[in-house]
Amino acid sequence: MEKIIGGIKRECYPLTSAQKVHILTLDYSPTHEIVNIGSGAYLQMKLNLAALREALNRAVERCESMRMRIWKDPESGEVFQYIDPYQNEYFEYYDFSEWEESRVEEVLNKWTSQPFDTYGGKLARIVIVSMPNGYNGYYFNVHHACMDSGSVIAFSRDVMEIYCALLYGMPYPKPMTSYIESVKKDLEYEGSKKQKKDEEFWNKVLEMPEPIYTDFTGPGRLIQLRKKNNNPEQRWGLLPSANGDGSTITYELDVDSTKKIMDFSAQYQLPVSAIILHAIRTVLSKFNDEETDITIRDFVSRRSTLLHKKCGGVRMHCYPLRTIMPLDTTVLDSIRMIKKAQDEIFIHADYGTLEYVRKMRPRYGVAPGGCYHSVNFTYQPGTLGGLGEALNGIGFKSRWYSSGKQPQPMYITAMHRPGDGGLNFFFGYQTECATPEEIEFLYYFTGRVLFRSIENPDKTIKEIIDMT
Amino acid sequence: MDMLAKMKEIICNYVEIDPETINEDSRFIEDLGFNSYDIMCMLGDAETEFDITIDQEEIASCRTVGELIKYCGGLVNE
To answer: How far apart are CA A317 and CA A257, in angstroms?
Structure first.
């Protein structure tokens, strides 16, 4: 629909369900940087400033979601989005090449903590940077209602491929797909037959008996909450998250160990995400008196078609992945059960996350903010790897930066490193909910369970718990 | 349009591949580069296209385009 914004006629669209989650986060957060995603992409080669500026401009021109703006109708209070026409942009340049790596990281984290003006302003900032050790590239901060990590990766790949095309005459990459087309498809889903089918599925999920909260530090928090509410039967948990202060700890799994996981995945035709989820699930069971009913919140990228793989924007939805399995279930059966549960989520993942939560709370009598999961998880198979090969071995690295805020109490992202392909585990956490020592403990046991399971696929969950 | 042609059309919405190179022996994961999420979404499209309901348990062993066509064909004929 057309709207007049700042005296200019704009084609506006309502926000999608994935975007609404981030706008809601802002409503409940005292600071707006909580929705920032900071990243960097760097090549170990001499910087051609003019070519990189040109590449960035071409990439912004091709990527509609980089020019997306959010507007709140002052009369109705309704929130809309529109695409600002492309205008040539001048990207600033900072030279950090003589700085200590840690000091640069501090600066880029600080930049990531600068909030955007959500309603009306630009929702992305790019700065060209020279980094220590001969790396040159750009720092990128973007509003989460504009992009998710999959989009950041797709955009960064586009920039680097255009840069290489300009420098070396390599083939120009295929254009990005239309973000607005993907928005239209999401909006068409509202009220469709498919939505009805998905709703029926989620209603059925909610017919199950109440789940139980399992904390990554053990049962202590649930016990305390039961005492506080004077309800010994209470099954939902509530993590403190008043200010959202947070941090991220990254663990790098070596290439050989990553290969073991990938080989196991190929041998048994089981997805890597289900294997990692099995490990996290088993650790939660171990930490919570061998509980058999475990819920982890699974984030789904919803980027399967070619349109969605390269359209930018934010598409992530998240749902509880609940599995109930006896302790004598074997590792292989556990992973298969998780895969099955995950497949069902995948089929019905277009249903809005907020719609599900709005149904779940009254169904089980859960207080606002209450839930049954303590861990959020996503596996990101896409990487910027391969670019190094395209550049004939020129070193490449990417980085994620922290705004100092975390929207989730505990969010584990497993992602392959560009270059060697090894797995990185990012533990994003709110400082009110976890300490670095607790994260270390969680990672240590997740790793132990993961590899004991791969080495002993016919052992039972109980045996794996006892071995670790 | 026969079922293979329809299936190729659906597959080409998911992966950048020349439809001519897709045949009944093409394996979704190893040859076409699908991941498990792509497969589930593609099955959803097949359900809509052929107006069938796919049983997850029954489809679990389908690894090739030909096996999926055989399975969907059976449901269409029912």
So the answer is: 30
Per-domain residue ranges of chain A: 2-183, 193-467
Q: Is B61 on the interface with A (CB under 8 A)?
A: no
Whether A385 has a pLDDT exceeding 60, the answer reads no
Starting at the edge strand that comes first in sequence, how are the strands of the sheet with A68-72 ordered? A13-14, A79-83, A68-72
Specify the amino acid at residue A20: K
Whether the pLDDT of residue A233 is over 80: the answer is yes
The lowest-confidence range among A17-26, A129-138, A258-267 is A17-26
A346 and B40: CB-CB below 8 Å?
A: yes
**Structure tokens given for A435:** 């300490």
Cβ count near A326 (within 10 Å): 9
At A382, the pLDDT band (50, 70, 90 cuts) reads low
CB atoms < 10 A from the CB of A58, how many?
19
Q: Residue holding tokens 């999959």?
A: A150
Question: How far, in Å, CA of A394 to CA of A399, rounded?
Answer: 17
**CB proximity B4 to A under 8 Å:** no
Distance of residue A368 Cα from the nearest chain B Cα, in angstroms: 31
ipTM, two decimals, is 0.89
Q: Does A201 have pLDDT greater than 80?
A: yes
CB contact A304 to B (< 8 Å) = yes
3-state secondary structure of A233: coil
Q: What is the pLDDT of residue A357?
A: 94
Fold match flag (A2-183 vs A193-467): yes
From A300, A304, A340, residue closest to B56, measured CB to CB = A340
Nearest neighbour of B36 by CB, restricted to A194, A305, A343: A343
The pTM of this model reads: 0.91
Reduced 3-state DSSP string for A402-443 = CCCECCCCEEEEEEECCCCCCEEEEEEEECCCCCHHHHHHHH
A2-183 classified as CATH 3.30.565.10 = no
Q: Given an 8 Å threshold on Cβ–Cβ distance, is B35 in contact with A271?
A: yes
Residue B56 pLDDT = 81
What's the rounded mean pLDDT across residues B22-45?
A: 91
Q: Assign domain A193-467 one CATH number from 3.40.50.1220, 3.40.50.720, 3.30.559.30, 2.40.30.60.
A: 3.30.559.30
| A285: pLDDT strictly greater than 60 | yes
Helix (H, G, I), strand (E, B) or coil at A94: strand
User: A347 in contact with B at a CB cutoff of 8 Å?
Assistant: yes
Report yes or no: A371 and A307 within 8 Å, Cβ to Cβ.
Answer: no
Q: Indicate the SS3 state at residue A270.
A: coil
Look at A305 and B36 and tell me if their CB atoms are within 8 Å.
Answer: no
A421 or A184: whose pLDDT is higher? A184
pLDDT(B65) > 80: yes
